[in-house]
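Sharing a chain and its predicted structure for anyone who wants a worked example. Both blocks are below, sequence first, tokens second.
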Amino acid sequence: MENTQNNDQQQPLTKKQRRELRKHEKHAAREAEKQKQHKQKMIFWGGVIAVLVIAVFGISRLTAKPIELNPDGTVLTEKIDPSQEWTKGNPNALVQLVEYSDFQCPFCAKQSPNVKRLTEEFSDGLLVVYRNFPLVGHTNAQDAAQAAEAAGIQGKFWEMHDLLFDRQKSWENIRNPKETFTSYAQELGLNVEQFEKDYDSGEVKDRINEDKKSGNVAGVTGTPAFYLNGRKLPNPETYDEFATRIREAIRDEELKQNLAPATEEQAQTEEQTTDNKLE
């Protein structure tokens, strides 16, 4: 029985069976080739997508807006809002001078009369902005800033500002500066009870911290730090040098303003001339 089955299995295939077998083998080969090509395409497009993702990520890193930090302190990134700042001068002035200052800083005290004089000489063309930047090494600087801010709530910021700088030597090393600053508030005719309340308030401390934060973002490391129309201004040694820088800045801004209308008028004239030629 077994020999009969073996003989049957060893019988040669008919032509029809061979054709069917070849047909089946070709079909299997085609399917295998399709799968191979499909796999290759998947690998190819997967690579393309990966390259594109990496490229897009790289471009986005290059073109993305950087974090507004300015470690070298050459550009002021904090915008000026005259309604929320301590300012002197023309709110619509073409030139803005921002000062980061410390009431206990002797160099700030030295520059204070110069800045005050600038606001008087360039009252129409200049806006001066004062921002607190009490330094850690000055033990009473924070308290002095609080005194100025508390006086500002009652409309006497600049009066307290001047008084603090004028009498810097008398309070810079005392143990309890608040008592002295309260006497200044009384001298300026402020409501002393309200002054003392505001002096320790979160509102006042928050304002100082906001100024310090903007200074840190701008890269301020010492005081005074001046920014003229957003650009760091090296500390002038004399008033005349200071005034010259302001005068030049005003002249440059006025020149820009004067050129803009002229350029527009010139463009209109050229357009009219072209139209006439076409006619």
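Comments welcome. The first strand starts at residue 86 and ends at 89.
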